[in-house]
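Quick question about two entries, pasted in order.
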Amino acid sequence: MAKSSKLIRNSGRYFFAHVALLFSMFSGSAGTMAATTDLKLARYIITETKGPNSFDPLDADATQNLPVARMIYLTPIETSFDDRLASTVLEKFNYDPVQKKIQFVVKSGLKFSDGSPITTQDVLLAILRMAWKRPDFPVIKEIVGIKQWVAQSKPLKTLPEGIISNGSLISISLDKTVHHPLFRFTLELFSIIPSRCINLEDGTVSCKEIPTSGYYQIESKNDSSIVFKKREEFPKILDRKAPDRIQFEYHEPKEIFTSKVLEGSSVAASNDGLFTYDEMEKINSQYLVRSLPRSRFFGFGINPTAKPFTSKICRQYFAQVFRKSYGKLLSHAGDIEGSIFTKIVTGYLSLDELEKANLSLESAKKRCLSEYKANPIRWSATSAFRDANYEAAMKNTLAELGQTDSDPVIFETRQQQDEAFLGQKVHIARFATGLWPLDPLGDLQMLFTPGLHKTLVFQQKDTALQDKITHLRSELPPSDRPNLAKDLNRYIFDDATFNVYRHISRFYVSTKSGQLSNFPTSVGSAAPWQVFEP
């Protein structure tokens, strides 16, 4: 928990010691870090976060855990190199919208890294554990009998009414038609681990060393990098060659063009929200760059139960001042947004359109400044998730609002930050997320699923918001959707507890003579091995 506005320390050594302990679950002995001059070693540069803090699949949605989970675990379904849904662990899969039924047939002959077979029960438990933990998750919430199943004292020892397991077949019946339900099972949250490693009494992971199901396993590591080695049973991944060994390296974003991190067989993953327009121009001129659709965004949450933000108009005024402060740091003011839907998604509204309803905010300035003075604002960041532009804008905002102490409270972990935010020790927490272009409303429902993200509890409990999302997810005439989506967008913007301020695009970059490959663009991020030329 925070001690002051300075870095919360045990210090950084505590964090990496904890991660090293987790690594030991997967790698046996530590081994020796492979030299980066090894021609068979592909280097994957991560600039958005630091190393992982959990290998539990239920924590795999966290930005720092997601890339590692994708390396060491299979999910029931995956996105192939050419944007198709595919699977290594399933012989076949399908969804019948008429019968409202999903069917998986589990492939035989696959093994975990310890040589034990991957069974139908292992795949089933990956789904059931998600259902037990997050029963309101999209698709999961539509499984027949899910509410009654979760209400049992030990649900993991039984099956919901809508799930049948017979031999290699898993059949999932839904109580309503769902759009794009199969995509949900590509998410790292459904990562497959041995069922024997799951405690059926309480759903926790019980194995000290979790055998991995994925294409790679951890070979070696140090405080700032991890080396993965491809498992021998996967000479190809979804019918395509992939690097035999991949080294994750964690770097600050600006190191992409201020150092030689991109030399050799390397690809960096980043997003344009971490750079100004001029810096992105420099990157595009120097390197080979491939971008995903602009479907992600930066934002910050405000705790509406803590003064001064119990007043909606004071939340709105703060968000307005922040967006103006942030815009002054960028080369193009048009980069500032307020819409939860990006331009490629139905329901997008420009910041000007959204702010029209709040033209009276200036009249609230005197009142809100008094509220801010009486109740000093505390904001937060984590040591693994820093953004210089955001932090400068937040400091400038607080200075403009008359607050003399504008330094952030910095936490070692997101969990510490979440606890402080919900406990009103800090008022503001930053986030980055996005909506899948093919099913944005499903992603929006997923984002605000009760129990999924602790700091979004205010949106999760907002019945008006949840009703609007549910209504948009129902069968509506196509002509009704744009206006209803815009209405939902305005509602989120006006509530000002969930404040989007910039739309971003994830991009991948290598030297112009490097090995950057074609990769799927219909998802939020490509699997690390997909970005390298085979």
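Here is the second entry:
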Amino acid sequence: MPNSAPFPVSAAVRFVAPIALVAIAYAELVGVPTGALSALPRGRAAVQGTLRTATAATVDTIRTTMDGVYTASQATKGADVFAAYCRSCHTPTVHTGAPFRAKWFGRPLDELFGYLRREMPKNEPGSMSDDEYALALAYLLRMNGMPAGAESLAADSAALHRIRLDSVRAVPSTQSNRR
């Protein structure tokens, strides 16, 4: 489900959640009594519950675009797709740098894929195949400094939903019930 907020909730969760969890883990590590954490405005359980709810409501990401989610071959073919369908309206640099990061970073990759499918090319939106959109997307990722990998970028919204567009590698999940 696309996030329509001007600042995606998923981005806020990415920044706030680690801070809250580190504070809780540190308190447990140094032996702060659970009651002391309850003195926080909403208490430890509320913080953890809010983080779980916010995280579940945003994006169930497994990887980021820094984890090599497309192949070099896809990006090369994507450059050809861009030249054939996109270059007549805009240059590749329009989709790089700070404006691109401000709009797309922290969001699931399926949102960008969906945007391309709905809006591009400008003269005939939706006229390319899903594979061509995936190739163009791989090219955009390469232009924005995302590394290529061994696995091809899928032309599937469900698979792309689990990839967050980001400039840092995903941290492997180590969530366990440590006490």
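Reply: Strands lie at 63-64, 163-164. Helices lie at 9-29, 34-38, 43-57, 72-85, 97-104, 109-119, 130-143, 157-161. Hope that helps.
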